[in-house]
Specification:
By secondary structure, the protein is an alpha+beta fold. It has one domain. The protein has seven helices and 18 strands. The strands form four sheets. Strands 2, 3, 6, 7, 8, 11, 12, 16 and 18 form a nine-stranded mixed beta sheet that branches. Strands 1, 4, 14, 15 and 17 form a five-stranded mixed beta sheet that branches. β9 and β10 form a beta hairpin.
């Protein structure tokens, strides 16, 4: 998994906060500030390259995104050793393809107890009236997300020199570029978030600020399994080309719904463990959309539930 870029601001680490007093493990006194940033994984602005590396598309396709929108919010935190809670119910539609270098700050809590808050969560809900937005997100994109009730919408293409489309195992035809424009109503909550090192939640430094970063990944619908923890997976894009049933160079949502799992996903796929049954290629994409929310880069939020 490609790491998300560091925000470069307000990044607090206990190793650096020892002088100021990093609360959490010893229940030290004092308060600090929590800022919640939303940032895209590098795969969203940079795409994915073909190759044999752990983070490459292994079947030779190059992936490029032209647009990537998410609905995100309802951030929350609590402590298992106390009744204190933090909550901001605000929900935003954000343009992750054009995210600013400072990323999007969607919540800030001041005067927070300088201890470890070991429970953190957020939602990727389906967009509804009343959602907010932050620059440079276009109001037309916000309106589109609300009108359709999308939790995520993305446009892009896969490209491969000598690429082919082999729909339903029939005769293959040349297809060096296949486009996609997919909007999904895959509202999902993400809880029990932990860092890549399995540290739950975050620690607030006394007198300082901790950056808490829900991180949105852009490669999950290329995984050959449905992850619920460590992302041990390979990435394939051929199914997108094979689902272009009419051969017009674009795979649509309607075409994804027509293609059964057995017609496009081979033995290299393990599609167990998703939220809901996976019977079609569309179900697979939705199941992967329900895993997009990560934490502090490559950390996981393993407790997930479907939102209406």
């Amino acid at each position: 998994m490609k790491r998300a870029r560091e925000t470069g601001v307000f990044v607090a680490a206990c190793a650096l906060a020892l002088v100021a007093g990093c609360g959490g493990e010893d229940g030290g006194a004092g308060t600090g500030t929590v800022q919640v940033f939303v940032e895209p994984e590098d795969t969203i602005p940079e795409g994915l390259e073909p190759g044999t590396g752990e983070e490459n598309i292994s079947d030779g396709w190059r992936v490029t995104y032209e647009k990537f929108l998410v609905t995100i919010g309802n951030v929350r935190a609590s402590r298992s050793d106390a009744e204190e809670t933090l909550n901001d119910p605000s929900v935003f539609v954000l343009d992750l393809k054009n995210a600013p270098a400072t990323r999007y700050v969607i919540a800030e809590f001041e005067g927070v107890s300088a201890v470890r808050w070991d429970r953190f969560g957020f939602d990727l809900p389906n967009a509804r009236e009343g959602v907010k937005s932050l620059s440079p997100t276009a109001e037309s994109d916000v309106a589109m997300m609300v009108e359709n009730g999308y939790s995520v919408y993305f446009e892009g293409s896969i490209e491969k020199e000598g690429g082919e489309s082999c729909p339903r195992g029939e005769a293959c035809v040349p297809a060096e570029e296949v486009r996609f424009r997919w909007g999904l109503s895959a509202g999902t909550s993400f809880d029990d978030c932990a860092t890549e090192d399995e540290l739950p939640g975050f620690s607030v430094p006394t007198g300082g600020t901790i950056a808490v970063k829900p991180t949105i990944h852009g490669d999950h619908w290329f995984f050959n399994n449905i992850t619920a923890g460590a992302e041990l997976t390979k990435r394939h894009a051929q199914y997108i080309a094979d689902c272009d049933l009419d051969g017009d160079g674009e795979t649509t949502i309607e075409e994804l719904k027509e293609v059964k799992v057995a017609e496009v996903f081979g033995e290299e796929y393990n599609l167990g463990g998703g939220l809901g049954q996976i019977e079609s290629a569309y179900d697979y994409v939705v199941a992967q959309a329900r895993t997009l929310g990560d934490f502090q880069g490559d950390g996981e939020c393993p407790t997930r539930a479907v939102l209406p």
